[in-house]
Amino acid sequence: MTFLQIVEGPLFYIAAAVFVIAALWRLIGIIRIGHKADIAPPKGSATGGFIAGNLRHFVPRKSFAKRTWIHLVAGYSFHLGLFVLLLFAAPHIDFARDRIFGFDWPAMPRWGFIVAAQFAFAGLIMLWVRRFADPVMRLISDWDDHIGSWLTFLVMLTGCLALQESHDALKAIHMLFVDIWLIYFPFSRLMHALTFFLSRGYTGATYGRKGMTL
Amino acid sequence: MMLPKLTAALFFIALMLVPVLMSSDAAYAQSVRPPANAVNQPGQGPERIGTSNTLGEDSQSDYWRALRHGRSGISTSGPGGGLLIQSQGEDWRLIRKQYIIKYSGSVLIGVLALLVLFYFIRGRIRLKGGRSGKTISRFSLSHRTAHWFMASVFILLAVSGLIILLGRTVLAPLIGKTAHSIIASAAMQGHNLFGPLFIIALVWLYYMFVPGNFFKMVDLKWLLKGGGLIGGHASAGHYNFGEKVWFWAVAFGGLLISITGIILEFPWLAANLQLLQVSTIVHAVVAIGLIAFALGHIYIGTLGMEGALDSMTTGDVDINWAIEHHDLWYEEVTGKPVQADKSADNEAPGHAQVYTQSRS
């Protein structure tokens, strides 16, 4: 068995299993915490607040938009670029069809991949730079944040370096970083990708029930 | 400050390379072209027997002329598509192989050696008055983010570019042809991917840092005093002469690299093959120059000078650093003459929130 076969075969399935089980464990754990019963009569809809809380956070507050424009541009650039790469890159769709789902969906053209990758890289680099260039961010960032940023960067970088698909070794290195990333994900702040809607929704539901406009 | 000396050394090296690149006599000596007497001329050599070429008795000169100067319909598409043999390609190959590849590594190692030598001779430039504990804002978060964004992209491009340029000469003998092939393929993909980000970084960097980087008379005085190495203290505004030279080198060098990079990444934009060949040469020479310059910039910003890195990490610098290295800027932002504030280290620690640049 070659190194590539190991990292995209057994090691990938082990990493994916760790990712799914641990992420579910954490999500269910968060949901099961529950909250103290609010005995005050509701003045609005908690469900509406949950949804509004999630949507409202996608648009920056006017008073903060100018001050936080780097964070805003970098955040959207990175996350949108990454999702497009993850879901619509032709090699990813082929892998998902062959190894996971058994079916595929339309892939974006090569130029689309390049543009999405550049958005993702520009955003990620700016977000990481902000971690040490902004005094407040530097203060609240720890090793977990930096490891998460660097692991994500290495997964993206090795994937793009293997874009030509001319060498199995490059693909194997990319898959190795993907496996490491999947295992690290549920035990780190990368989990925000799966929990952000809960925290935004919780705040939104609390305010919604009190009849506050978000 | 040592920056002008480093600047002068780097320019000297660059200037030394120019005549070397201009002279190609030695290159022709090792050309793969046949010698002038290789072709038998009628009446000058032994009498030919039978046909002299595959076209029978047709003139070979006409045949090769058609191949070298192009004929419509002979070939397909792309720059110089009708041209089967491009004579200038041999010049390009020789310049690239015998000068650029041969000397670029030596230039970079030479600059590194000079920096190490300089460090051992001069040592770290320390703050004469020590740290006062009081700081002053020098660069905003936008400035710092623009700087580090450019630095990140520049390093990725420099590493991948050096692998592309020197990998076959330096890496292949060490790690083998197969491993080199894998690394070179990865470097090529990475270089093409990060290239457009460099253009974005360059425009952002220029926009953020151009205020204050135009040359003034005080820069000439700073230069004549060797940045303080000769002739005592050299006054400087927000940026000194060395920093301004570095800024404009990045601006113009970056512009050249960007234009030639676009031509190389999209070769169908080039009108002819010569433009592509000149682009590879300009791209490589300017890149090596900027990398060499960047080594000096990194040295003086980290190991070489106490307190310099603070301006790009926290954005604040110690007041004593500002007074010692950028006294005119200090006076401008505080409104206080430097002499009156020489005792800054005796005052209570604190922070002054002042910027001189219009962009924030």
Provide the fold topology:
The complex is a heterodimer of chains A (214) and B (360).
Chain A: H1 3-7, H2 10-33, H3 46-56, H4 62-65, H5 69-88, H6 90-101, H7 110-133, H8 135-140, H9 143-161, H10 168-184, H11 192-209
Chain B: H1 3-22, H2 25-29, H3 60-69, H4 88-122, E1 134-137, H5 141-175, H6 177-209, H7 217-224, H8 241-265, H9 273-301, H10 310-313, E2 316-318, H11 319-325, H12 327-334, E3 350-352
Parallel strand pairs in B: 1-3
Antiparallel strand pairs in B: 1-2
Describe the structure.
The complex is a heterodimer of chains A (214) and B (360). Chain A has 214 residues and is mostly helical. Chain A has one domain: Transmembrane di-heme cytochromes, Chain C (Fumarate Reductase Cytochrome B subunit, Up-down Bundle). Chain A has eleven helices and no strands. Chain A has helices at residues 3-7, 10-33, 46-56, 62-65, 69-88, 90-101, 110-133, 135-140, 143-161, 168-184, 192-209. Chain B is mostly helical and 360 residues long. In chain B, 61% of the residues lie in helices and 3% in strands. Chain B has twelve helices and three strands, in the order ααααβααααααβααβ. Chain B has helices at 3-22, 25-29, 60-69, 88-122, 141-175, 177-209, 217-224, 241-265, 273-301, 310-313, 319-325, 327-334, and strands at residues 134-137, 316-318, 350-352. In chain B, helix 1 runs antiparallel to helix 4 (88-122) and helix 1 (3-22) packs antiparallel against helix 9 (273-301). Chain B is elongated and about 85 Å long. The two termini of chain B are 27 Å apart. In chain B, 32% of the residues are buried. Classes of the chains: A mainly alpha (214), B mainly alpha (360). At the A-B interface, helix 7 and helix 9 of A face helix 5 and helix 6 of B.
